Amino acid sequence: MATPDRARSYEIEDQEAALKFAIRQIRGDRVQIIEGVIEQMSPSWAHESAADVIREQLGRRVRELDCRMGSGDLDLPGSSNWYIPDIAVVPRALAKEAGALLPDQTLLVVEVTSDSNGDTDRVVKRRRYAEYGAPLYLLVDRQERACTLFSEPGPLGYTLAAGPYPFGTPVALPEPFGLELRTEEF
C-alpha cells in the first residue's frame, strides 16, 4: 500500500501538457485530441484526393506569399485540444519551428469531412478555430457536398460565413489569397 507522500509523487500538475506530450510519443499513427478525446488520423483516399485538389490550386499563391502548406500540429493552449488540420497555410518562418503552431498563426485552415468526423469539423473545430483566432476556415463537407468559408473569428465563433456552396461552385478566397477555388473535383 502506498503512503500518502509516495502517492502524491504521481500526481500530474499540468494535465494538459502531459496529455499533449503523450500523444506526440505515439509512433506510427498521427493522433489529435478533440475536446479531450484522442482520435487516430486515418483519412481515406477520397478524403486525401479532395485535400490534394486544394493543395494544387493554392500552391503557387502560397509560394508567392512566402508561406508553407501542410498538416502540421496546431495547439490550442488552455484546452485539451491538439489538432492536425487537413491543410494549414502558415508563414514560412513559422513553419521552420520545431513545435506546434497556434491557429492565429495560420492564414488559412482547411478541414475535409469524413463520415466518422463530419460533425467534429462542422461544429467543434469551427468553434475552436474561431476562438483561437484562425482568420479563415474552409470546411469541405463531403457528406453535404458543399463548401463553406468562415471568416472574422471571435470568442463566440466566426461572424461571417460564405456558403454553403454546392460542389461545382467556385469559392472566393479573400486576400491575401485573392483567388477562386474550384470545387468540382471534390
Largest sheet: 6 strands, mixed
In round numbers, the mean pLDDT is 90
CATH class category label of the domain at 44-71 and 83-181: Alpha Beta
Order of helices and strands: HHEEHEEEEHEHEEEEE
Describe this entry's structure for a reader.
- This protein is of the alpha+beta class and 186 residues long.
- It has a domain of 127 residues: tt1808, chain A (Alpha-Beta Complex).
- Helix content is 28%, strand content 32%.
- It contains five helices and twelve strands.
- A hairpin with a 2-residue loop joins β1 and β2.
- It is globular and about 55 Å long.
List keywords for this structure.
28% helix; 186 residues; two-stranded antiparallel sheet; tt1808, chain A; six-stranded mixed β-sheet; alpha+beta
Task: Present the secondary structure layout.
Elements: H1 4-8, H2 15-24, E1 31-34, E2 37-40, H3 45-64, E3 67-70, E4 74-76, E5 81-83, E6 87-91, H4 92-95, E7 108-112, H5 118-131, E8 136-141, E9 146-154, E10 157-166, E11 171-173, E12 179-181
Parallel strand pairs: 7-8
Antiparallel strand pairs: 1-2, 3-6, 4-5, 6-7, 8-9, 9-10, 11-12
Produce a short descriptive summary:
The chain is of the alpha+beta class and 186 residues long. Helices cover 28% and strands 32% of the residues. The model has no long low-confidence stretch (mean pLDDT 90).
